[in-house]
Amino acid sequence: MNKSYLFGIVLVAVLGGLLFGYDTAVISGAEQGLEDFFDASDEFDYTDALHGFTSSSALIGCVIGAFLSGIMAGRLGRKKSLFIAGICFFVSAWGSYAPETWILPQEPSLTLLIVFNCYRLLGGIGVGLASAICPMYIAEIAPASRRGALVSWNQFAIIFGQLVVYFVNFLIIQAHINDPAIQEWTQEVGWRVMFGSECVPAGLFTLLILLVPESPRYLVLNGRDKEALQVLTRINGEQRAVEIVEEIRQTAVEKREPLLAYGWMVIFVGIMLSVFQQAVGINAVLYYAPRIFESVGLDNPMIFTVLMGVVNISFTLLAIFTVERFGRKPLLIYGSLLMAFGALLFAVTKIIAMPDWIEVLSILIYSAAFMFSWGPICWVYMSELFPNTIRSQATAIAVAFQWIFNFIVSSSFVPLYNFSPAMVYTIYGIICLVAAWFVYRLVPETKGKTLEQMTALWRSRK
Q: What is the pLDDT of residues 364-410, one digit of tens each?
């Protein structure tokens, strides 16, 4: 096995995951300055509802991108689709930094708000494409014995991207912390710099994705066996590469199978895994971490936001190094139960007066449990669960549901939290318990199975 070649390919692919994390979490540092900027407008009333929509508008693009991913990955290929995602990331970052470029004055206005949200929606399309296609691409190019760990690195990159942008936002604010006019600077310039900083990783990803090969499974499914054999030979050696091409070819004859060719259960399981990954409420914490830590009474919430990012990275690594040893199901089940404990503990602290450190600890437990379970493992399942002939379609549908529920959770969190923090985290805790039951009863273990073996498994259950 050519580990260095495989590592290079995966490293480029997971940059898409890093941009996924960067783009979705940049709002955590920018949203208050953004709110102050548009709130100063004399032209229109920037309400809480408008701010909630603006903070979450990228997620609408994520739904669109996820739905498009199936069509694009199937027709254009995984590589070209990821290149298009990179273009979306870059244009969105620049446009969010300077939405008035070429056409508008810099003063806050309703037109400027609409243009800003259009740029954020474009970035969301990039996220939706990357979120579905990056793990699919890694899974289709990785050996079965290493697939779970390699796909989990995509989740590591997502969380690392969030940590990077937390840190970047922190440094942007710290650079002006002694400025008497810091609030005015943050309102006029700070949020722009935060969004614009994404241009660097977006440009790098867009260029590097041109250097990696196309997915061998996509190549075989499109009659390009010779090219697929060349890629697989460099990764697995010639003998094993010939065997893999033959395994893929055996399913390639069924390329045009309808979505429900393997029954409705495989689609239902994929969709519900995506729904639960968001319904447990994690992105309410990731997107609004500074606001939550500020409500707890902490003097510098950005420091604790960065701390949470470090904890998240550490527990994502735990998943990467244990997913092939313990399997997917146990990590999901135990992670769900620990998340329920953290969420319900936080709810209790809002009913019964407790020290601030217990509230912070409960949030960290809740977040850390997600990071070694639903965070990476759901993406592993998205890349392994579906048969070859319906993978791009089924993954697109499942990931679209993920972004729909991400939008629901993210846009509803602030009004629900303001109404009753105890209530909203009790709801999340109960959903975590239901998720554990669902995985135990209905989700198959995919550890050690080839993608072709998963095709046989669902055919037998049809």
A: 899 889 988 888 888 788 777 887 777 777 888 888 888 888 888 87
What percentage of the chain reaches a pLDDT higher than 70? 91
User: What CA–CA distances, in Å, run from 306 to 20, 213, 303, 447?
Assistant: 18, 35, 5, 33
Which residues fall within 8 angstroms of residue 180, CB to CB, at 6 or more apart?
Answer: none
Burial label, 264 (beta-carbon count in 10 A; 0-12, 13-18, 19+):
exposed
- pLDDT tens for 210-266 read 999 998 888 888 878 888 888 888 887 878 878 777 777 765 544 556 777 677 888
Please tell me whether residue 355 adopts helix, strand or coil conformation: coil
Measured on CA atoms in the order 49, 50, 55, 57, is the torsion positive or negative?
positive
Q: What is the dihedral of CA 270, 374, 378, 442, to 10 degrees?
A: -40
Give the whole-angstrom CA distance, residue 387 versus residue 205.
29
Show the tokens assigned to 250.
């055996």
- Return the SS3 of 193: helix
Q: How many residues does the chain have?
A: 462
Q: Which of 129, 317, 142 is nearest to 231 (CA)?
A: 142
Closest CA to 386 of 214, 245, 270, 247: 270
